[in-house]
């Protein structure tokens, strides 16, 4: 159990070990408080069409994309919120989570489109296509009505179990994931968006949570891409623990029988003291704001989210020092002393103010491009893998829950206390989210109604146990 963790253990799942890992995944899903999910895809189509202003047009296009492309890997991260001990209940400052993480390589058995840009992106981030085509867990798209495979281990049945468990579902920027998950592992997508959202509302009655929506509209982060909000959540959580505030502790239980399939992914973070004493490389503004740079190969600036956060913290410190100097000046004091919060960084106050002004003008900071590129290379281990991205998503949700949630009568936190944030999916280029709900004008599809009834009547033997 730790606030700070430098590696994250992910169980790598393929056709070779799927049956062996199956009971562990089912148990983790069944016992979880919520489940975070992420996917890697063979393509996402034209971004302009998938960001159409008319939401119905946007859905129709995404439906076509999901029908013609495929899921390449599925990440499932199961989070169990542990009941606090009596002393911790009194303070209500710590939330302990137990996490099981699975990265499942899958292979669609039907023909599907692949987009060179998407494949190139995945290769650059370490995706193994030899493993995917050679050892991917096979699945067939669309409806499984009349199939007799509902009692055997399969990706489709794993998704069915996720629905039957009744847990809240957590995603990041989740519309595309939801469309692909439905089409690939559940049923043929409905023609209308309102029918689709009605089906989702019935499939996940405990709610669907989107961390991008929470980051943008509730927390008010300056950027909302997943790696940024995860690394910032890590840092803030560590700082809160150091000053005796609310913080999340993480446990990664190890299953001895699965030890041969576990890959440990680098996940180091820096605390405030480490950051303020470290020279900050020049940061690419495009990467800082959006998490990507179209000129990454030729851009000599840093594409490391740690450098982005270092810069933010230094600017924050600079503003705090400026306010303190102004207050001391107005109160008649002739001397400005730096308090312990500022960690006595060797840089002068002028340097900090210059840094703040420089950032405010959308310029860059001091220069060490070699150091920045080295850190950026090291940081690649951390993202764009479905299992790890699912963990990052769930971890962010846990930190948001601790900060925003309300404890029940038993002093426990649950996502139900964040009901106002449930079923709101972030929409790019839109000021309002997509609401997952039923209304008098929309009803679940007939195919979903039949399937969900069949699933709930036919509980797998492993779940009964």
Fold and architecture overview:
By secondary structure, the protein is α/β, with parallel strands linked by helices. The protein has helices at residues 18-31, 47-50, 55-68, 86-91, 116-124, 129-135, 155-165, 175-185, 193-203, 211-219, 226-242, 272-276, 285-290, 305-330, 349-360, 369-379, 386-404, 446-457, 461-464; strands at residues 7-13, 34-41, 71-81, 94-108, 137-139, 169-171, 208-210, 247-251, 262-266, 424-425, 434-435. Strands 1, 2, 3, 4, 5, 6, 7, 8 and 9 form a nine-stranded mixed beta sheet that branches. Strands 10-11 form a two-stranded antiparallel sheet. β10 (424-425) and β11 (434-435) form a beta hairpin. α3 crosses α8. The protein is globular and about 75 Å long. Residues 334-381 and 460-465 have low confidence and may be disordered.
Notable traits:
alpha/beta; nine-stranded mixed β-sheet; two-stranded antiparallel ribbon
Q: What value does the Rg take, in angstroms?
A: 23 Å
Helical stretch count? 19
Order of helices and strands: EHEHHEHEHHEHEHHEHHEEHHHHHHEEHH
- How many beta-strand segments? 11
Poorly predicted tracts of residues:
334-381, 460-465
Keywords: Acetylation, Metal-binding, Nucleus, Phosphoprotein, Zinc, Zinc-finger
Subcellular location: Nucleus speckle; Nucleus, Nucleolus
Subunit structure: Interacts with U1, U2, U4, U5 and U6 snRNAs.
GO molecular function: 3'-5'-RNA exonuclease activity; snRNA binding; zinc ion binding
